[in-house]
Design a protein that fits this description.
The protein is of the alpha/beta class and 220 residues long. 50% of the residues lie in helices and 12% in strands. Strands 2-1-3-4-5 form a five-stranded parallel sheet, with helices on both faces. α4 packs across α6 and α8 crosses α9. It starts with a strand and ends in a 7-residue tail after the last helix.
Length: 220
Amino acid sequence: MKNKINIGLVDDDLLLLEGLHLLLSSFSKLNITLSTRHPETVLEQLAVVGQNDFPDVLLIDIKMEPLNGFQLVEIVKEKYPAIKIIVLSSYYRQTYLGQMVKLGVSSFLPKNLSKELLFEAIEKVEEHGVFFTEQDQAMIIGYLQRKKSKYEEELVFSPRELEVIELICQEYTNQEIADALFLSKRTVETHRQRILERIGAKNTVGLVVYAVVNQLYRIR
């Protein structure tokens, strides 16, 4: 992991935004490069941020106007899929968590969490792509079972597919996976696509969530 993690903050509550900015500024490993209480301007701001300051992790609220967190996540993920998103919200519920996971959010945390847990989440999200507590995982399982998602199916993966899943969870690129497993890049791409289709995930975050929840991968 690099020395500094670039952070973007989005919350339409000015007092909370300033408090979060002050808190995160106290961590030497974090570099706040974007901070706004206007969610509708986030894409415009991302478009002009320099490469060295482009956010690695974006922290956003759910209840915002005129653009709420669900809408903002979907828009940002479509335009900048590599950005990792952590949602901080007072509305910490199973339904919200399930919806956010489906949209590709890397972590979903209540606003009354400790500063230590917040910093741990940011580090884990930057390093592994996701951070979900045991409570989160239980909520995700409950949500997916209630929705009768493909996630609850009893799937059996080949040893090769399990190797690919583990390396994807470690954020290896297709080429890096190919090199590690002595496969062609096209073969790895085929494995990745087939795995995503089988578990019903739309993106890598969904795959990682599935792997963690089903104990195919453990975040170290």
